[in-house]
């Protein structure tokens, strides 16, 4: 059963109808943290539900799409042998075939796909992939100034991004170690003192809870079991530097009450607010990471403005779009049986490929001259 934690908030007192700036900040941070927690939980629930729907609705359609792509590949491979084509059309056909092979790789038919690629590329798939990887590594190393390890998955943007982050962190740490020690500024000293005070505030609450809840001091078996469970929650909250959870536990066991919350000293409140700001930052980062992971998992653009609330509205649209693409692919495949339609389609695809190459190469400097 999910534990319902007591709600924390500083209330105005008799004779003091207005909260101080620190008290208002404390309450505002509590609300923001609760909002982020609810959002995090919503994303976790949404991801689970969407995974079920993905498996039931999207996966069969994606499998059908891949099957149609595979059939298109074999049709085009066969057409290249039986249809007389111009040099430009044949080159276009070969580029399309090689692109389809690359997109379909990663299954049980890889060797068959490689053979088709080798036939039309005039080179070997594995050699081309190795050469492409080497070009990417060279460009990467020139851009970032450090070597890329051979075990980095070049097909995974997530792995590459993580590698960059780790290497930059290593270099920053090395620069710090090599740098000559500087005298700390007054601001740095103040920041370190504030951080230490904030940590001390959390530690003091933890010690009070341990003193009250340590199960080894309990002789009653039932009460010892209850305190064991409570101590697990205390240790988890302290490990996570979760000030709210620790204060809520104090309220729960009546170690403190609402009047205690209302009268927290301003100096102590300042330390608490610092811890809460860090908690909020960590929650916001976790929500952001979960949102990006969701978009990657369900093939959504990074810029897509998606929330747990609007996912249900977006999924039907995505399903309609996927079904429409499948229907278009089926109709296109049928139409290309006519050699004249095939040649016309290849000319259209040439324009598409040229435009993609133009955009990927960047716009010339004199385009507007």
What keyword list fits this structure?
single chain, 369 residues, mainly alpha, 75% helix, disordered C terminus
Explain what this protein looks like in three dimensions.
By secondary structure, the protein is mostly helical. Among the domains are: 61-123, no CATH class; 128-175; 187-300, no CATH class. It contains 12 helices and no strands. α2 (87-104) packs antiparallel against α3 (110-121). The chain starts with 20 loop residues before the first helix and ends in an 8-residue tail after the last helix. Mean pLDDT is 86; it is low at 363-369.
Produce the secondary structure layout.
Blueprint: H1 21-82, H2 87-104, H3 110-121, H4 125-144, H5 157-178, H6 186-213, H7 221-239, H8 243-252, H9 258-262, H10 266-297, H11 311-335, H12 339-361
């Amino acid at each position: 059963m999910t534990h319902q934690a007591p709600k924390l908030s500083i209330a105005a007192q008799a004779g003091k109808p207005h909260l101080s700036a620190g008290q208002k900040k404390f309450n505002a941070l509590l609300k923001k943290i609760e909002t982020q927690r609810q959002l995090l939980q919503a994303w976790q629930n949404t991801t689970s539900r969407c995974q079920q729907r993905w498996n039931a609705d999207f996966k069969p359609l994606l499998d059908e799409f891949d099957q149609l792509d595979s059939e298109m590949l074999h049709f085009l491979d066969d057409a290249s042998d039986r249809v007389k084509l111009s040099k430009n059309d044949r080159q276009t056909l070969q580029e399309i075939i090689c692109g389809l092979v690359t997109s379909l790789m990663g299954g049980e038919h890889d060797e068959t796909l490689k053979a088709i690629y080798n036939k039309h590329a005039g080179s070997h798939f594995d050699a081309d992939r190795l050469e492409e990887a080497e070009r990417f590594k060279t460009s990467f190393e020139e851009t970032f100034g450090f070597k890329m390890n051979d075990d980095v998955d070049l097909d995974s943007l997530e792995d590459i991004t993580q590698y960059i982050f780790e290497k930059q962190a290593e270099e920053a740490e090395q620069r710090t170690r090599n740098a000559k020690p500087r005298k700390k500024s007054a601001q740095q000293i103040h920041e370190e003192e504030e951080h230490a005070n904030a940590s001390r505030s959390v530690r003091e609450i933890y010690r009070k809870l341990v003193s009250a809840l340590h199960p080894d001091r309990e002789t009653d078996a039932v009460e010892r079991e209850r305190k064991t469970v409570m101590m697990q929650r205390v240790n988890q909250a302290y490990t996570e530097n979760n000030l709210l959870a620790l204060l809520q536990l104090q309220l729960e066991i009546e170690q403190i009450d609402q009047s205690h919350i209302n009268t927290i000293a301003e100096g102590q409140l300042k330390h608490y607010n610092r811890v809460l700001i860090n908690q909020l930052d960590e929650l916001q980062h976790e929500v952001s990471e979960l949102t990006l992971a969701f978009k990657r998992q369900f093939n959504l653009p990074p810029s897509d403005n998606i929330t747990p609330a609007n996912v249900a509205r977006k999924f039907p649209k995505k399903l309609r779009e996927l079904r429409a693409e499948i229907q278009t692919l089926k109709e296109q495949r049928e139409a290309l049986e006519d050699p004249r339609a095939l040649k016309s389609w290849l000319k259209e695809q040439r324009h598409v490929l040229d435009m993609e190459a133009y955009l990927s190469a960047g716009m010339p400097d004199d385009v507007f001259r």
